C-alpha cells in the first residue's frame, strides 16, 4: 500500500506525455514492387538506394533542402549517427543510404518505430538500431546527432529536463562531432495548441527562450551556425564540438 501511494505521488507530480503524435496523421506504410510509401508525421518515399520527401510534406522538404549537403559524401560516410525523436525514420534512413557507419533511432511512438522495423526488414538493413525510449534514459553517443522538432517536447513534456542548460548539456554529451538542432519558438502554433511547456511547470526554471538557447549552444559547443528557417518560428542550427 505504501509503495502504491509513493508511485501515485510521483505520477501526480511528474506527468509525462507518452502520445506525442496523437494529433498528427496516423502513420501508415505501403509497399510496392520497387518503393515504400510512408505517411503520417513524416511522409516520404524510399527505395533500396534512395529516399525523398513526399511533395505534400512541406516541413520535411524544407529540412531536406537545408540538410541534404550534410547527409551525403564525406561528411557522413563512415560516421555514427543518432536520430533523436526519429518518428518513422526519414533522417535515419537518409544517413544509412549515404553510407554512415551505423545509425540509432530513438522515439517513444511505437507505431512509427514499427514502420522503421518494416523498412529495415524489407531492405535487409543491418547497421541500424531502433529504440523505444525517452532520450534522457539513453546514455549513448554518436559522431552526428539529429535533434529536430524535439526540444519543446523534452524540456518538460515527454521528458523533464527542466532547463535549457540541462537540455543542451544532455545533447552535448551525446555529440562527438556535430549536433543538428532545431529551435522551436514559444510562438509556434504547435506549442500554442499542445502547450508542451505547461506540462511540468513546477519542475522547470522557465529558461525556454531563444536567448538562452543560443547562449547555451555557444557555451557548450566550439562553434554554432544557423543553417536556415523551416518556418518563421523554427530555425535549424549546426553546432560543432
Largest sheet strand order: 7-6-5-8-9-11-10
- Helical percent range? 25-40%
What top-tier CATH class fits best?
Answer: Alpha Beta
Structure summary, number of beta strands:
11
* Class of secondary structure makeup: alpha/beta
Q: At the fourth CATH level, what is the homologous superfamily?
A: Vaccinia Virus protein VP39
Q: What general outline do the C-alpha atoms trace?
A: globular
Fold-level CATH name: Rossmann fold
CATH architecture descriptor: 3-Layer(aba) Sandwich
> For the residues shown, what is the average pLDDT?
92
- How many whole angstroms does the radius of gyration measure? 18 Å
Count of separate structural domains: 1
Q: What proportion strand?
A: 25-35%
Question: In this structure, how is the largest beta sheet organized?
Answer: 7 strands, mixed
What's the number of helices?
8
Element-by-element helix/strand order: HEEEEHEHEHEEHHEHHEE
Would you kindly provide a written description of the structure presented here, covering whatever features stand out?
The strands form two sheets. The chain has a seven-stranded mixed β-sheet, with helices on both faces. β5, α3 (90-97) and β6 form a beta-alpha-beta unit. The chain starts with a helix and ends with a strand. Mean pLDDT is 92; it is low at 4-12. 39% of the residues are buried. The longest helix is centred in the middle third of the chain and has 13 residues, at 110-122. The protein has helices at residues 2-13, 58-67, 90-97, 110-122, 151-154, 164-174, 189-194, 210-220; strands at residues 28-31, 36-39, 44-46, 51-53, 80-84, 102-107, 128-132, 142-147, 175-184, 223-231, 234-240. The chain has eight helices and eleven strands. α6 runs parallel beside α8 (210-220). It is of the alpha/beta class. The protein is 31% helix and 26% strand. The chain has a single domain (57-240), classed as Rossmann fold (3-Layer(aba) Sandwich), CATH 3.40.50.150. The radius of gyration is 18 Å and the shape is globular.
